[in-house]
Every structure is written in C-alpha cells, then in structure tokens.
Amino acid sequence: MKFKAAKSRSVVIKKGQTTKRFKLYVQNEEIPSIVTSPIKCLGRWFDASLQDRDNIKNLKQQVEEGLKKIDRCGLPGKFKAWLYQHALLPRLIWPFTLYEVPRTTVEALERITSRHLRKWLGVPPSFTSIGLYGKSNKLQLPLSSLVEEFKTAKARLVLTLRDSPDEFIREAGIQTRTSGKWSATKYVSQAENALTHKDIVGVTAVGREGIGARKVVLWSRSDLKERRARIQSEVRRAEENARQARAVEMGAQGAWTTWNTADRRLTWGDIWKYEPFQFSFFLRSVYDLLPSLVNLCRWGLTAEQKCSLCDRVGTLEHVLSSCSTALTQGRYRWRHDLVLRELADLLEKERKKEHGNHPRHGHIAFVKSGETVKTQKPTKASILDGSRD
Length: 389
Ligand SMILES: [Zn+2]
Prior knowledge:
Layout: E1 12-14, E2 17-19, E3 24-26, E4 29-31, E5 39-41, E6 44-46, H1 53-71, H2 77-98, H3 103-121, H4 129-133, E7 139-140, H5 146-162, H6 167-170, H7 184-201, H8 224-249, E8 264-265, H9 268-272, H10 276-286, H11 293-298, H12 316-322, H13 324-329, H14 334-352
Parallel strand pairs: 7-8
Antiparallel strand pairs: 1-2, 3-4, 5-6
Helix pairs in contact: 1-2, 1-3, 2-3, 2-5, 5-7, 5-8, 7-8
Residues 307, 309-310, 312, 318, 323, 325 line the site of zinc ion.
C-alpha cells in the first residue's frame, strides 16, 4: 500500500487559527494544506474554518438558487410545487443530516420556500403554512415542511449512530450536535418516552371503533427496524401536534378545526385535474381567504359587511351556500339548471321524431343453415331511436 499525499490534507493550527505557512511532506511529496484545497469526504466538505459555517452558507445558496431555477422554468405553478417536493427537497436532506445547521436557519429557509409555494399555488402571502404542510388538516396537500424533514433527518442520524451494528461506532461517543436550543438527542429520547408511555396506556379505541379492532405492535416487542420507523413517525407526529395547536389559536384560517367533515387528502393526481384558478379558489375557500363581504370589511376595503340581498352578515358560508334570498330565487342552481334545460330541449326534439322504421332493440335476425348473410354496415344508432316516450 502506498501513501498518496495528493489525496490527503494537512492542517496546521497556530494560535487557534489554521495556517498554510508550514508545509508538511511525506516521501518527499507535499501534503496539500486544507486552507488552499478543501476536501470532500463521505459527502461532507472540510475546510480551513474547521466549522460548518461555510457549508451552511452554501446550503442556503443551494436552496435559494434551486427555488429561483424552479421559478424561472415557465411551467404552471402546480408543477413548480411538484418540483420543489420531488427535486429540491430530497437534495437537502443529506446536508441537513451532515452539517450542524441551526434550527433558526432551517426555519428561515422554510419561510423562503413557503413564500414561493404560496405564489405557485396562487394563494395570498397571508396563507398559513399549516395549510401547506399540515398532515391532519381537513385538506391535506402532498407537501413537506423543511423543518419537519430537518428534525426527522437529525433523529435518523442519532439512531443510526447509537444503534449501529458496528461496535466501534456505537461506542465512539459521537454526538449529533445541533446548535441552538433544539437537541436531536433529547428529541429522540422524548419520542422513546412517549412510545413507552403508549405501551403502558395500551390500545385505545378511536371514535366508534370496537374493542380490539386495531392491532398495535407494542414498543417493547418491536425490533430495531420497527423502532427506528416508529421513532421517526413519532417525531413527525410531535411536529404535527405543534401545528394543530397553532391552528386552533387562529381565527379565520383555523376555522376548519371545528368542522365536522371527513378529512380530504389531495394527491398529485388530484391536483393535476384542477385549473390553476380553480385550485387557488379551492384552497382559499378552505382557509376563508376569499373576498367575502366579511373579509373585505376586515381588510378595510369596504365598510359594509351585510349581504345586499338579505341583510345578514356576509360570511363565506353565507355567500357560498346559505343566503336565504339567493336560495329562494334559485341563484345557486342557476348555472346547473341551464345545463339541464339544454339537455331537456335535446331530448324533447328526439322524442318527437318519427322512429317507426327503426328496428326495436333486442331484434335478432336468425340465419337458416346453409344460408349466408350479407353483412351490412351498422348505421349510427342512438339509444333514443327505439323509444316513443
Ligand atoms: Zn344573503
């Protein structure tokens, strides 16, 4: 085996600072200094600062440039949101895992991505981030929050190092450091405590579930792989709980927390079917951000928040479905009824036509043995041809 100087790096620290003044040699070959040539090892960059400061700066730049690139691609907004979820986000998970990124930095990055996502989905800047990333909302979008992915990545790293099959790694005492108040190790142990607690509580029935309707694997009996998966989902659940707690505190945009309807989880397939404005309307109607009379008044654009038809308060619900005057005048059905009228006209015309010559449906021309039948081109038949009523 030969020592390859060019593949190694030398670090000289003088008075607490890395310096390139001293040159180190092995077998008459100079080992490059880390000051002049940073090195990448196992997916992680090492440079003269001996910290992650520059790497974090690069990460920020990567996010900002990625978002800009997606923004300039000229596709409709929903495709841009898809690109964020499936092209940009997976690339960020690895740097999140490796570098000591402060939580505040990730939160700042999430604010930037949320701003772009709002623009792409056609919702106003005031649209809550809970609406974008919530996983137990009445309406769930297939988007992931950067902060949640960051926390899960860190928890995964803690577990990988702690429960490694390699004894040396397990006992090396590697700490997963996260600067700031948030600690990944503490988070993981909290999640484990919560899971142990669930074991003690036992299986609880939700809603109208019968006793024993759900099979639950006990924490104490799960193997290593299951435990890892459960801790990660527990980390995600804690994030979701925090989001829900914030949603309950919100007035208009958190109104859905009191709705008694089934949850709706949108897939990308569902989103492709929407026209851009239709989707924007849909999102804004769920989070009460449409220019209803009450909202216009709240935003200081009009002084009057009463419905001009019936003198009641013009909330979103009132405008969309429960104005009594509009109901009695048939305004809600108007468009629907126009379509029905068109159909009725067409059917009536068909009905009045003469249908006498056409064979009734169900008629079978039998062929005697030995005879051949001339095949006729089938005439265009309508299901109305045979009818008289
Ligand atoms: Zn009204």
